[in-house]
Specification:
Layout lengths: L2 H17 L1 H23 L11 H4 L1 H26 L3 H6 L4 H27 L10 H25 L3 H17 L12 H7 L3 H14 L6 H25 L6
Helix pairs in contact: 1-6, 2-4, 2-6, 4-6, 4-7, 4-8, 4-10, 6-7, 7-10, 7-11, 10-11
Amino acid sequence: MNWHAVRAIYFFEMARTKRTLLQSVLAPVITTSLYFVVFGAAIGARIPEVEGVSYGAFIVPGLIMLNLLTQSVSNASFGIFFPKFSRTIYELLSAPVSHFEIVLSYVGAAATKAVILSVIILATATFFVPLRIEHPLWMVGFLLLTAVSFSLLGFILGIWADNFEKLQLVPLLIITPLTFLGGSFYSIDMLPAAWRTVSLFNPVVYLVSGFRWSFYGTADVGVEVSLAMTLLFLAVFVAIATWMLRTGYRLKP
């Protein structure tokens, strides 16, 4: 294992966050705080409890998952896309760095940044609503697995995209809508039966449900199913990323 190369790429990516601190950290925290004010305090005050907790507390896991997914994808996709755009990717591919080490460094940095932001948002939420975490180890597990899985998805998107428009296409048109419709702000049990069935085809439902279960012990689907789906996403994304690097898909001229 070439740990020198892994550390160099990892800390380079982490340093990029320091240069864009307002955009990378402060903006998502302010946006999420506004969600707490609008949905948690203003609208939530008129909504009865959902699954035994106040509406403001109910949406906290969904908001954390919303930021975790979007930040994981955007950080990892831009991280690998920019060397392609500047054509410095060829120096990396010709260096004595294995495919696993490349994935480990880029995905590790993206997942780390997404998890740090999620912890900051979780801490911010305590200023607005009372929180309880019934299964902290499961919460950490879902947080890490989801961050790594969707950082891998971002890594795949960064390799696939050949311009900045495509880089933003999937996060804006697919990830964010699926997250909003994935039970972040409501329980899918509140939907009519037909729409509840449709919602079960949304993969984000399983992520939000499992993460919410770690907080309050209640979920839209079984926690075992949520864990299995999260591991399935991880396996699929690992397989695709491995295939891309082995074949040089959109990396080699």
